[in-house]
Amino acid sequence: MEHSACCGELRLDPDVREDARRRLLSIRGHIEGILRMLEKESVYCVDVLKQIKAVEGALDKVGGKVLQSHLREHVVNARERGDVDQIVAELMEVLKYR
Amino acid sequence: MEHSACCGELRLDPDVREDARRRLLSIRGHIEGILRMLEKESVYCVDVLKQIKAVEGALDKVGGKVLQSHLREHVVNARERGDVDQIVAELMEVLKYR
Amino acid sequence: MEHSACCGELRLDPDVREDARRRLLSIRGHIEGILRMLEKESVYCVDVLKQIKAVEGALDKVGGKVLQSHLREHVVNARERGDVDQIVAELMEVLKYR
Amino acid sequence: MEHSACCGELRLDPDVREDARRRLLSIRGHIEGILRMLEKESVYCVDVLKQIKAVEGALDKVGGKVLQSHLREHVVNARERGDVDQIVAELMEVLKYR
């Protein structure tokens, strides 16, 4: 039922894909940093919360880049392509919360 | 200037710490899954966005566990301990966004 | 610099506009309810916070309706219309936070 | 089942209550402004979305003030008062989403 499954034509832009990959590598490193923090018995709750928030901010940023690319490459021409219902429904789903 | 630095007494509860560690290991695995998705040329934007959202949901959950433990162990007794200003300020900071 | 200023052609769908109006009237009523709560000396913080959250949920719902209509009527055909840059920029701006 | 019902002792600080009332009056005015916008046939979706976002920002601000007061007056001394479970549970509930 995925759009990608139906036509195989809508692909994440290669530059954005590479940028997202690079950012997620850095986010993985950040999470490994939190994992190391959590090995210390003396770790303080609020320090963990700050790091989690920072990772969420970084994820929001990747998401924003992918979303912008999606809007620009696949949403603004959905009428021409003829898949408005699906494009709008899946976008609303993804935007629903945060 | 960290609270932890000032007194060394406020520590994340060991069980919550272990639970958070376990959850973050799973989140790291999830991110590695997204990194693998991003290696495929045909990956679709919305599929990436859904996965990012799922990771953010999982991070929110870890954050919620740590926050609840912090409230229960360190915030509800701050008046007795005498560090209300700092406890409230750092909590407001952490809750500010999302 | 508003889009609306540049061409006057992009308008909120009349049915969605009427629905939004109706919902915002109800939200205004909800806020008046909170104002009445706040006149009582004995009002409890958490009861106010719950009501504020409920109003934010209702506003999210109106926003979602307007956004969906905007996507469907004005975004999916931006390529044809030739204003992709502006449509995407203003959408990213509006989606940036929450 | 409300905390307020059980003891009647936990009250929103009078100054914060007055500040919240003043802010909510202004928010009501803002919503009336959006209602007037929505009477115009030519209103543009994104202009409505921006105003809704602005109102949500203002509500977040009131919520933040009330929350800070609640933390400072009622949460930091919950251990002494002996209602930790209820205080933490209702706070987690209110913080759950946004």
From TrEMBL, chains A, B, C, D:
Pfam families with a match to the protein in the record: Trns_repr_metal (PF02583)
Compartments (UniProt record): Cytoplasm
GO CC terms of this entry: cytoplasm
GO MF annotation: an example: DNA binding
Entries under CDD domains matching the protein: TthCsoR-like_DUF156
Keywords for the protein's UniProt record, in alphabetical order: Cytoplasm, Metal-binding
Keyword Transcription: no
GO biological process assignments: negative regulation of DNA-templated transcription
NAD as UniProt keyword: no
Family: Belongs to the FrmR/RcnR family.
PANTHER family noted in UniProt: COPPER-SENSING TRANSCRIPTIONAL REPRESSOR CSOR (PTHR33677:SF4), TRANSCRIPTIONAL REPRESSOR FRMR-RELATED (PTHR33677)
Known partners and oligomeric status: Homodimer.
Protein name: Copper-sensing transcriptional repressor CsoR
Species, as recorded: Alkalilimnicola ehrlichii
Source lineage: Bacteria, Pseudomonadati, Pseudomonadota, Gammaproteobacteria, Chromatiales
